[in-house]
Amino acid sequence: MALRHFLDIPKLVATTVVCFVVICNVLGQNPLIVFEQPINEFEGGGIPDLGNGDWFGYAVASIGDINQDGFMDLAVGAPYDDDGGSNKGALYILFMDASAQVGSYQKISAIAGGFQGNLVEESFFGSEITNIGDLDGNGVEDLVIGASGDDDIGGWAGALWVLFMNSDGTVLTEQKISASVGWSGSPLGTSDRFGKGLDSIGDINGDGVIDIMAGVHEDDDGGNNHGAAYVLFLNANGTVQSHVKISEITPGFNSTLTNNAGLGWSIACLGDLDNNGTTEVLVSAPFDDVLAVDDGRVYIMSISSTGNLVSNTEISAAVSPILAAEISAGDKFGSAVSRGFSMWCDDAADIAVGSMNYGSPSVGGVLLIDLNSFFEVQAVQVITEGQTNFQDNLNSGDKFGRALDLVTDYDGNGYPDLFVGDMVFGSSGGTWLLSLGPAEAPSVFSDSIQLCENSSFQLFPAIPVDDILWSTGATSDTILVQQSGTVWIEGVAAGCTINDTINVIISPIPELSLGNDTLVCDSLLLNTSESNYQTNWSTGAQLQSISVSESGTYWVTIDGVCGVFSDTIHIEIPEDLSFSLGADTIICEGNNLLLQPTLFSGNADVFEWYNGSSLEQNTVSIEGDFWLTISEQCSIETDTIHVDLGYNPVISIPADTLVCATSIDILAEAETYGSYTATWSTGDVGLSATIDSSGTYVLTLNDICGSATDSIEVSMLNAVFIQLPNDTTICDGDVIDLTPDASWFGILDFLWSSGSGDTTITAMAAGEYWIEAVTNCGSISDTMLLFTSGGPYFSLGSDTVLCAENLEIQPQGSFIGEVEYDWSSNEITNTITVDTSGLYILEATDACGSFLDTIHVELIQGDVNINLPDYAFVCTGDSILLTAEVSNLNAQVFWSTGEIGESITVSNSYWYSASVSEQCGGDADTTYVYRVDNEPIYTSLANLACGSATILKIDSVRQYSDWLAPLQPAYLWSTGSNDTIITVSESGDYWLEQTGYCGVDSAFFSVELDDCWSSSVPNVITPNGDGLNDIFVPFSVECSSCAYRLRVYNRWGIQVFDEVNTPWDGILKTNRPSVSGVYFYILNVGETTHTGYLEVLP
What we know:
Elements: H1 9-12, E1 32-40, E2 59-64, E3 73-78, E4 90-96, E5 102-109, E6 125-131, E7 143-147, E8 159-165, E9 171-177, E10 194-202, E11 211-216, E12 228-234, E13 240-247, E14 267-271, E15 279-285, E16 297-303, E17 309-315, H2 321-324, E18 333-339, E19 351-355, E20 365-371, E21 377-383, E22 403-407, E23 417-422, E24 430-437, E25 448-452, E26 457-459, E27 466-470, E28 479-481, E29 485-493, E30 496-507, E31 518-519, E32 524-527, E33 534-537, E34 545-548, E35 552-560, E36 563-572, E37 578-580, E38 585-588, E39 593-595, E40 598-601, E41 606-609, E42 618-620, E43 624-631, E44 636-646, E45 650-652, E46 657-659, E47 664-667, E48 669-671, E49 676-680, E50 688-691, E51 695-703, E52 706-716, E53 722-723, E54 728-731, E55 736-738, E56 741-742, E57 747-752, E58 761-763, E59 767-775, E60 778-789, E61 793-795, E62 800-802, E63 807-809, E64 812-814, E65 820-823, E66 832-834, E67 838-846, E68 849-859, E69 866-867, E70 871-875, E71 880-883, E72 885-886, E73 893-895, E74 903-906, E75 910-918, E76 921-932, E77 944-946, E78 950-953, ...
Parallel strand pairs: 25-30, 31-36, 38-44, 46-52, 54-60, 62-68, 70-76, 77-82, 83-87
Antiparallel strand pairs: 1-24, 2-3, 3-4, 4-5, 6-7, 7-8, 8-9, 10-11, 11-12, 12-13, 14-15, 15-16, 16-17, 18-19, 19-20, 20-21, 22-23, 23-24, 26-28, 27-29, 29-30, 32-34, 33-35, 35-36, 37-40, 39-42, 41-43, 43-44, 45-48, 47-50, 49-51, 51-52, 53-56, 55-58, 57-59, 59-60, 61-64, 63-66, 65-67, 67-68, ...
């Protein structure tokens, strides 16, 4: 079926433009990009006029076939273009060719394209674009352009320009709509940014003229910059007939916005989506904080024929979990909005929403959103770098998705294309034409269908299909199928052409049998032989066949095209045979062993022994290997037992022994059969025992065949020892008897170091004494030291200074026996603690005499501290005294200059430090000395002042704060003022006195005032170039040296001249000659302002 885009309609019906939804895209799943064409400074035909920072792509729109060459044309805004002044803005009309590239273009700006309107700097002309049909009836589509920075009433109030177009893309005439022009009773205020969001909404009031909706995203209804939008009913001349405002406080608006939400930032007409007679319009608030900062939201607003809000539906991350998974803080969802088409082929009108900060890193993106009839989000597909088959490279900081519009089908795939703007791309901005194509056609059938033999099936499509044609030639909604083969259908579903096939399979009635009940030795495979049936076994398996290995009854049910069938089978599987003759064993000489198998599983049918016996039991009395084989229906098993013949045990212990060590390990040898026990007379168990004393020790051994005993006599010599007393001290002249402690029974002989063989010797001389003894196990010896003393000797240490709170004093030396302590402080302990200065004496007495020592202690209380001021000032050529405050006046102060003393004299700016130290500590501090220059008064006051008043001021005034605040000078004028600037309105002599930290300075000067105004100023000029009265200079000749600013306005209040120190020659700011009539002027000379009227004659 034919595809018509809304922007194609003006070529067919010149006076009618409507807003409506385009048909299905046949996407079945998610849309994909099948064609993309970048259009920028270098690509897509190229726009060489673009410059850095123009922001080409800030706004985009389809504008119909302007030049009537059969190809739909496009318009792109570049609001930061500098034609005629900074950021005045521009519009590019792109004439497209058959290859979807720019064949040629026409620029419209303050100085190009026939535009005659006055654009001020930062007008941002081109910030939004829409097509409003052929208003003037010349056969060419007309446009409305936003200029959101226009300042008719100051401060970016904003404006719209209605451009009546020529077929070559130039402007025939223009009509401005702003707070003061083209809109009687306009409610616009400063900083509203009128004209940022904009779209045609059709002739909703039925007066034959297209109406528009325009945003004011910084309007303050409801809160700071919450935003709003105006429905504007237009006249045929482009002026506003009436308006309706929609904002957060409008009845029916059921949502709450945050500050700086920006409602009205972007607007797109959707048409009457729900067929209830209202027009749905998509309006964005991209800076709203919904779930996070600047995540943004959009609204579908239903507008009545009177322009009033009927209802609004929110689309955001807050109401859609699908969107919540895509939108993040700062994405600015809603930076652009556009009508869509049924991109998911579900007969619902979908939308496209720009999110210019989408992604990480932020490059921007476009969200294609699938809506149902309740405007709820069903699916989302994102177009950005690397997604949805988008091939171009984007850079961090790009704003891909800043502008959007649905345009004509340039690539001819039968579906509309999407025009996307990114004003930051490259250096000057860029746009893309994106064609969305089908990912997979919808299906109305499954792949195949099965029928049972001798049956039939009524076949019909799974979704509604119109214009049906079956492969049988039938055109009915259903057909009767009775034979195998392929059946196809053609038709139209949800506005989409479909072609689908189904394979019909005829199946025979199954014959299900699992076989007769049976016995098997291992496992059995059960099979239904029906692969096309749903199978359910009693085991829970759902396979065509199963393997069973356990006894039991098994059933199966199959369910398929011919019905349900079942069967049952019983299977018996005997247990595997398992038995044992027991573990290998021993029999004692003369005994018999009964062999009898233990059956663990299975049935023992036949016995066959090693000796040919077939009985269940057997008897053996000799050693050897004996086997038994048992067999049954499904298995045969054999087991063997080994039998050893045992005798009475034999045991042997080593011979009796003499031991010189402290203990001995005894290990017996034994011959036993099977398990045994070995017990010593000591209670030890096992063949070994550890002996540590003399005596007779017996070992008894028992095993299965008997018992045996053996013994050993042990003599221990480990108790022999000899030991002298500990080292000791005696007084000079005393003697001491030395007698060893010894086990004399084991000692054969001994000898002292003095050569004596006596048991006791007498010693009085200091030295080493030893004794050596001979035993059966060798020699043993011991040694001692004897010291002599003439009395105690000790030291209390050197005299000391005490910085802590107390000092512990303890004598260090040697003493004999008990010691008596006698301190000068009357204490009698070994250690004393002192906390006062003084001389301390100790006399100590032991068994050998007395000794005395002294120590002097000086106690110093507290640390020494020093303080300097944080900073100080010294005037140039002067000096100051720096003095340190010290807590100990006896301490010496050391300065960083090398000087010593409490004070020093300084005259330079510098950091100075002082320190003090003594035995118990020290301290330091730093100060900064700031040198202050005597600052003169700096003035540049002319003797002659232009105007009736002039300003006297100080050219350079330094401001001091914080610690430099004392340096702030004070001022006094001859008028009595203390300010740094005064206004005088009388000629005369004036003086100024400045009082600073380092002195006083004065300045004197005279003032002569001349208001430079003449009553003979002309009120008529004739700028005809004859040299007479060609220019207007509204002051006397004597004041020609005075600086002035001259502004001239026409009778409509539009400024036509604004220059400094330049007379007006009758030429307008647009470089066109002025027309005859009366003009108003404003002259500023110095502080004086004069106004008046001037008539311009030919």
